[in-house]
Design goal:
By secondary structure, the protein is mainly alpha-helical. The chain has 4 helices and no strands.
Amino acid sequence: EMREKGLSYREIARQYEMRGAHSVADWERIYLEEGPDGLFIERRGRGSKGWPPKKLKLEVEEDLLAEVQRLRAENAYLKKLNALVAERVRQEKKQK
C-alpha cells in the first residue's frame, strides 16, 4: 500500500494508528530482504550476545548420546516396572 499510493512511513503509521514509523520501516526492510515469509518470524526481545557454544569432540558427543539413550531406556523400564507393581498391589487389595 505504501508503494502503491506513494505514502511515507509516517503516513502509513498514522493511517493504521501505530505509535511510530520505525516499525513500518523495519517491516519494509524485512520484506525486501527476506520476502513475505520473513514477516512471520518472531523477532521480539534481545538477541544473545554471549560466547558461542563450545564444540565437543566427536567421541565425547557420541558418548553423551549413548548415555542419553541408555537413560531413556532405563526410564521406560522403571515406568513399566512401577505400573506392574501398582497393578499387583491393586489386585491384592481387591482379593482381600
